[in-house]
Amino acid sequence: MTTPMLEIRNLHARIEDRDILKGVNLVIPAGQVHAVMGRNGSGKSTLSYVLAGKEDYEVTQGEVLLDGEDILGLDPSERAAKGLFLAFQYPVEVPGVATMTFLKAAINAQRKARGEGEVTTPDFMRAVKDADHDLHIDGDMLKRALNVGFSGGEKKRAEILQMALLKPKMCVLDETDSGLDIDALRIVSDGVNALRDPYRSMLVITHYQRLLNHIVPDVVHVFSDGRVVESGGKELALELEAKGYAEFDEAAA
Amino acid sequence: MPAPVRIGPAEQKLIEQLSAAGASAAAERLGAVGLPTRKVESYHYTDLKMLLRAVPELAGAGKALSEPAFRIPGAHRVPVTNGAADIAGEMPPGMRATIVHGAALTERDDVLVRLNSALAAQTLKLEIHSRATQVVHIDRRTEAEGPAHMNDSVHLFVADGSKATVIETFSGTDETHLSNHASYVAVGTGAELTHILLDLSSGQSTNLATAEYQVGAGARIRTLTIHVGSALSRINLFARFVGEGATGDFTGLNLTTDGQHSDITLELTHAVPHCTAKPLFKQVARGRSTAAFQGKIVVARDAQKTDAKLMMQGLMLSDEAQILSKPELEIFADDVVCGHGSTVGALDEDSMFYLTSRGIPRAVAESMLTRGFLEEVLDPIADEELHIALEGVVENWLSGS
After folding, report:
1. pLDDT digits (tens, 9 = 90+) for B300-345
2. Taking CB atoms and an 8 Å limit, are A77 and B361 in contact across chains?
3. B376 — contact with chain A (CB < 8 Å)?
4. Which of the 8 DSSP states describes residue B320?
5. How far apart are CA B117 and CA B136, in angstroms?
6. Residue of B349, B354, B371 to mutate, interface with A, max A Cβ within 10 Å
7. How many CB atoms lie within 10 A of CB B251?
8. What is the pTM of this model?
């Protein structure tokens, strides 16, 4: 059997004294797109933070294997170097750091991890152009401070541009649809779809079915009270939309 | 009657040096009150009596021994070595350099001023009559094999309607020098000046400096005071608006690393109406070090329509670092807009997570965010070569430990 891209085994995590994740099991084979749906407060975003290694959360039990390797002992930058990418629900505004400086630093960190030299400015600009597709990240946006004063749509487009530039093997998209109008949703979804690849997996976290019309998942998981309570094909998303989450709370109880 | 002050060996040495220079009043004063302690409000964070342990012999004539600490391509450099300016070279058009006997600062109740006024033998006077902005680098050095006590003095005169960018650097040989610098800066009516003080002196030295600014009507001044070098530093900034409609952006970067104590103290006086000031001082402390900033804005009774906003921001990079800041407002006019703000904190953890989640190692992310914190102060420096050189100073500081 081939190694799954991501395997989460009985993952438990807490913040302060509150248990949030209560035994998550999830297997994503290479090349597949999985969706995690659940209502607000079910622990979906916590799952994305725990995968990326945010310090506020304490993992009390379980394992997370990225391409067969346990990553829970690694810090966020090491996980990223191994090919994990989190597209943030709320990309952080960083005053004083130009977007271009940040992107270069991220690319150079990755190149360094692979033992390569720093990227030259022309090569960098070419890489940005190649990654852009139809995201429309212009030179002006690159010069501005990272995410500062960006509209909701610009922030999400910038996240997808970063994803395209860093070429991760495992992408976690946390509520990428939140705060987007229909047009922006389409642009962002097209950006994500362009990155679908037999060697790249995605975990798409959302609580609306509408995103999944654009990014069509191979598998849908229903998340409730800190774990996966139901898994199925893409039609499960439609069923959820029709019936609401209450139906699945039984399973969690 | 107050008990007589105990005079320590450093003070004793200074008294001897003052007496030998014929400054008997200053010597007497120091003998009576000693160096300022934390009980003196303007030295509250820098107890010189405790911190200044030794005073070396006065510096003699010196020649350049150290490597240039700072170079700006295209700038006109005027070296001042152990107080003696070298003005033999050709000056750029509109600029005149002369050497004047004695010191430059206005008499003032401050120990650094009294010492410099008594001990600086001569002043470099630089007059600028030019509408084309020329970058001038006054390279002030303390040069001696072995520790020296050095006092130097510069008088900068920017004529009405003239424009200039002047950077003064402090550096020298790697010794436990005591350097005490004075700059008197007069900005004429409608003139524009960017004035930078940059302390790059040796990590074991004590660097003291006083800059006095007189800002004329409708003039625009931007100042940037940077500390990165000396172990013990105190910089006095005395600024005064003397003509209406002037604007002053007084800014600073106080960067301290393990073992350093650096204090920048600004006293800004609005003596006349309709002047605008936006002092912005940023401090970053790491290791076991102390960065202190005091900012006082005085608005005279007649200085109506003053618009002054003092901002001080501190960033602590270690648990042992100390950042001190004290804003003061003294307002005697009744139709003014005055305010102050002060923040101190660590790096934002959400920003750290965001950067590291993109593969940027923690140390690099820390340095990027610190650099970002300082950007607001460096960004307005318009001259490109100067800007790049200053960025280099900050990058160096960030990459050191």
Report:
1. 999 999 999 999 999 999 999 999 999 999 999 999 999 999 999 9
2. yes
3. yes
4. T
5. 24
6. B354
7. 22
8. 0.90
